[in-house]
Prior knowledge:
It is a single chain. The chain is an alpha+beta fold and about 150 residues long. It has a single domain, classed as Hotdog Thioesterase (Thiol Ester Dehydrase, Chain A), CATH 3.10.129.10. About 25% of the residues lie in helices and about 35% in strands.
Amino acid sequence: MANKIYFEDINIGDSMPAFTSDPITRTHLVRYAGASGDFNPLHYDETFVAMFGMQRVIAQGMFIMGITSNAITQWIDNKYLRNFKVRFSGMTEPADLTDFENTKGRATITIKGEVVKKYTEGRENCIQCDIQAVDALGSVKLTGSFIAALPSK
């Protein structure tokens, strides 16, 4: 659950708390496919991805976006969000439990963000925060931003 954050307590340049996911596994991808209806074979079929020269399946982009939104709402309550947008930048491979040592943590996603704008629009006191999701090796998975209308003290 997010802490109560007030507009007056946030400044341009402030960082949102970093959030690191648990390692993403194939089980996560299968569960997400069932929940979302995204049964593209890129997310579960090794034979299919090998036809494209890929070594392993990849996570659904919207799954990574979901992890990102979870990171945001751990910091700022969902009811304050006004806008959330992302651009996908890279593929995320799951960790195979039998080969976890060789993944070197690539399957964890860390979300970081920085407040880049603070303004009043109408009756709302807003902040804009730029965000980025990266794996443990620093490979960017998505970039984006969100706007939140925060309460005043």
